Amino acid sequence: MTDDPEGLFKATLKTRRESVLKLDQPVPVHLVYFTAWPNVYGQIEYRRDVYGRDARIFEAMQAAGVVLPVVQG
């Protein structure tokens, strides 16, 4: 416990070393993985699917009967 949690965080961050800080309250974390997203110009940008998730999602959608249009690149 500390009277200055922000100061403790900043001091720990300055060490640039991996650290463990016990929190008084849990902090929810939501991780997302995108291989396509719109840029500031409204155009879709793509990145390589390093985890192969897109293919598994596509297969699951097909198995559920979802018909997806063919996309020409």
Describe the protein.
With 73 residues, the protein is of the alpha+beta class. The chain has one domain. The protein is built from 2 helices and 2 strands; from the N terminus they run αββα. The protein has helices spanning 5-14, 53-63, and strands at 36-38, 44-46. The protein has a two-stranded antiparallel ribbon with strand order 1-2. A hairpin with a 5-residue loop joins strand 1 and strand 2 (44-46). The N and C termini lie far apart (55 Å). 0% of the residues are buried.
Write the layout of secondary structure elements.
Elements: H1 5-14, E1 36-38, E2 44-46, H2 53-63
Antiparallel strand pairs: 1-2
Number of strands: 2
Output the strand order for the largest sheet.
1-2
Question: On the 0-100 scale, what is the average pLDDT?
Answer: 90
Rg calculated over all Cα atoms: 21 Å
> How far apart are the termini?
55 Å
Beta-strand residue fraction: 5-15%
Which stretches are low in confidence, meaning pLDDT under 50 for 5 or more residues running? none
Number of helices: 2
Assign the structural class, choosing from mainly alpha, mainly beta, alpha/beta, alpha+beta, or little secondary structure.
alpha+beta
Short note summarizing the structure:
The chain has 73 residues and is α+β, with helices and mostly antiparallel strands. It has helices at 5-14, 53-63, and strands spanning 36-38, 44-46. A hairpin with a 5-residue loop joins strand 1 and strand 2.
